[in-house]
Amino acid sequence: MPVEMRMWRIDGQQPRPLTPAALPTENELHEFLKRDPSLLGIPLLVIGSEVPTPYGKRLDLLAIDGDGNLHVLELKRDKTPREVVAQVLDYGSWVSTLSRDDVIDIADRYLGQKFESAYEEVFGSAPPDELNSELQLTIVASVLDDSSERIVTYLRTFGVPINAVFFTYIEDEDRRYLARSWLAASVDAPTSAKVKSTSKRAPWNGRDWYVAFGGDRSWEDARRFGFVSAGGGKFYSQTIRALPKEARIWVYIPQTGYVGVGTVTGPAVRFADARVEVDGASVSLAEQPLLGSYMHAEAATEDADEWVVPVRWIKVVPESQAYREKGLFANQNSACKLRQEFTLDRLAERFGIHDDQ
Fold first, then answer.
1. Whole-structure pTM value
2. What is the pLDDT of residues 43-83, one digit of tens each?
3. DSSP-H helix ranges across the chain
4. Which of the residues 19, 209, 286, 299 has the least number of beta carbons within 10 Å of its own beta carbon?
5. 291 versus 181: which is more confidently predicted?
6. Which residue ranges form the domains of the chain, and what is each CATH number?
7. What is the DSSP letter of 51?
8. b/e map of 194-216 (b: 16 or more CB within 10 Å)?
9. C-alpha count within 13 angstroms, C-beta hemisphere, residue 227
């Protein structure tokens, strides 16, 4: 059974119990959750309401969390208790098949803005490459009968990611209160076993890469001498070294924005061995008048050293003209495959890049 939620009003020294009441309308809780899904206790972005399914039914609310996982929220309303359990399982079987593009299409239609921008407004970062890899099913009700509670609890023992949340509505003179309790112990960890959907990772076009260029490095150096670099530890050096020749890279300065696009012209080499072209001659990069710092205190190993990748720039802008908007892909990797279509489209438009460049 869920934890019973009782409230008392304290007048002087005498607590006075407040009596639960029915919501004024059946749709009011639906509207509450649409406007503020944090009522459930976890950060969520609602991406669909009354979502049509291929089976003639409409899913009450569809939301997404900060890991890119979907949450099916089914309100009990006038359904019989056992019917709502079957209904949420049926919706889950459909939602688990949604591709990344399906998820974004549903969200774009509902949100009235680009999904990527709305996602960053709520979670503070761009959506992950993989969406809908796991699924959570939640029944929202004021009460469930004992048999339905037993069914939900039983399903959870087999790893079905289902839970029920109960909202108690209380009126006290001119004030209204909404209290919440969960059937299972914690909404933050509804079940230790989660249903894995088929892979919803964004496809990669085989060409575009993201490169983060920051720290003590200078973008002016990179623009002038034609390179990107990273190092100071395995986490940073191993990804920059993975950049292949002919890769098209989009360079991002952390906390600033995208500043350039170019083509990799050769393999990564250690900073001490890097050579660049100046006035038609090949010269040592380390011997040039650099503005940034590329040496590391413990660079005796390959992983700790700075690694330099030569680049032929297609289009670059000064750091002061960096391009940034909500929803653009960015992470801490020195380099990784750039899969997000939203980011690629925005960057191509901003930098005037065509597929043949």
1. 0.72
2. 999 999 999 999 889 999 999 999 999 999 998 866 666 78
3. 28-35, 81-95, 100-111, 115-123, 146-157, 219-225, 234-240, 341-351
4. 19
5. 291
6. 7-196 (3.40.1350.10), 208-351 (3.10.590)
7. E
8. bbebeebebeeeeebbbbbbebe
9. 30
